[in-house]
Amino acid sequence: MQTIKANHYEIFFNENCYQYLAELLTTDRYSKVFVIVDENTSQYCLPAFLSQLVTEITIEIIELEAGEQHKNIATCLEVWQAMTDLGGDRKSIVLNLGGGVVTDLGSFVACTFKRGIDFINIPTTLLSMVDASVGGKNGVDLGNLKNQIGIIREPKAVLIDTAFLSSLSSREMRSGLAEMLKHGIIADKTYWNKFKNLKDLSTEDLDTLIYQSVEIKNSIVSEDLTENGIRKALNFGHTLGHAIESYFLENENKENLLHGEAIAIGMILEAYLSTVKGFLINEEYQEIKYHLNDIYEIVDFDEKDIQNIIDLMIYDKKNEFGKVQFVLLESIGKIKINQFCDNDLIYNAFEDYQK
């Protein structure tokens, strides 16, 4: 697969990843290489990665506890201290080998260590390959509030080796699939249509779909890096989805939802809002709802759950002047940003979702 050019970096795929990395570590003469992993990627991905890493530079491995609950400033403090103790300086480079938590947090750590050092994202989950590792958003959660602390700064490169996907569970794969489906819904109906017969897709098909998903996201980000306009489209499903994810994360009586599972619900709810606001025709709403519910289990919400989720939406990063802003749909492949919805409509959306 050909390299994708972003604003100030490139996205490499499969065998090209390691050729690029070997050349970079030879020519730029970094003082030290920090590889940030979590418990899972340390076991399942790190050995294969290190076997391909050709360099005489000292390599230091920093391992995080796995899970969204560790994506916070406390973990950053531990990583900053470890890098300091291990002799990190301004000519060090960070390689983030992992899923969205590792790439988000590791990138933020690199952006702030010594006022900023180079970093490369090497995503190992489908979700991180098509979403978290691409686009220059780096940050951590504030308590259970998603991605409240962070910075937009692009990586040195992104290296996507789809061989890492063999270590994932089917649930993790479905989680990543949600962001790929979102890319089709917001930007490319032809791409969306390719997912209607998932059982017929081969491994080669998946590689192509991943590549096209990255192309869609990169095209949007390249037009609006700092999210003042069209990049907001990528938040479709996330205003409600992030609130749902945060609510389930903080509630001991609820089983945590993976990011993509929460976003799938958010996309159905926000597609409903698009319909009742008069933007999206009902046939396309039903199409979105049918296909997402065919992939993801329907989750039950009572009135108290819904109110708590609505209360959490005030912390969404798109909000301005205390008002919750939604990304809604005009059609599959076309969006409307900066939209407002009354709470009554949101309650109705949850009711329709659970029918």
UniProtKB/TrEMBL annotation:
GO biological process, one term: chorismate biosynthetic process
Segments forming domain 3-dehydroquinate synthase C-terminal: 176-319
Pfam families recorded: DHQ_synthase (PF01761), DHQS_C (PF24621)
Biological role stated in the UniProt entry: Catalyzes the conversion of 3-deoxy-D-arabino-heptulosonate 7-phosphate (DAHP) to dehydroquinate (DHQ).
Record has RNA-binding as a keyword: no
Segment forming the signal sequence: none
Protein name: 3-dehydroquinate synthase
Enzyme nomenclature, EC number: 4.2.3.4
GO cellular component terms, A-Z: cytoplasm
Keywords: Cobalt, Lyase, Metal-binding, NAD, Nucleotide-binding, Zinc
InterPro entries with a match to the protein in the record: Dehydroquinate_synthase, DHQ_synth_AroB, DHQ_synth_fam, DHQS/DOIS_N, DHQS_C
Cofactor names: Co(2+); Zn(2+); NAD(+)
GO molecular function annotations of the record: 3-dehydroquinate synthase activity; metal ion binding; nucleotide binding
Enzyme class: lyase
CDD domains according to UniProt: DHQS
Domain 3-dehydroquinate synthase N-terminal, residue spans: 62-174
